[in-house]
Structure to design on (110 residues):
């Protein structure tokens, strides 16, 4: 699959949002909002979750290893917020069987 940054993870396994698990691997839908979406140039993508990745923070590190654009989009992690399957989560939260990870900057409202 080709990601937002144009890097090809070369999975070739036919995994998708409907077929999220195969060969011991899991596909995770990652969606981006606001400045994160603008920095990456897309609103979402699907990624294989390597066996060595267990937390949100591990997954963000993994993305940063794939392509430089992730590194710059996630440079200040103190300004990022996360949600797993629509539930707010911290970077040390375990991905488990989550289908979707949302990444966004802090939101204020009034």
């Amino acid at each position: 699959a080709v990601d937002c940054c144009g890097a090809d993870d070369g999975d070739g396994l036919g995994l998708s949002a409907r077929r999220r698990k195969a060969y011991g691997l899991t596909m995770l839908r990652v969606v981006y909002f606001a400045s994160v979406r603008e920095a990456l140039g897309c609103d979402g993508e699907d990624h294989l979750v390597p066996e060595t990745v267990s937390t949100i923070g591990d997954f963000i590190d993994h993305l940063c290893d794939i392509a430089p654009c992730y590194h710059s989009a996630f440079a200040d992690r103190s300004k990022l917020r996360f949600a797993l399957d629509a539930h707010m989560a911290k970077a040390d939260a375990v991905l488990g069987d989550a289908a979707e990870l949302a990444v966004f900057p802090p939101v204020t409202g009034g």
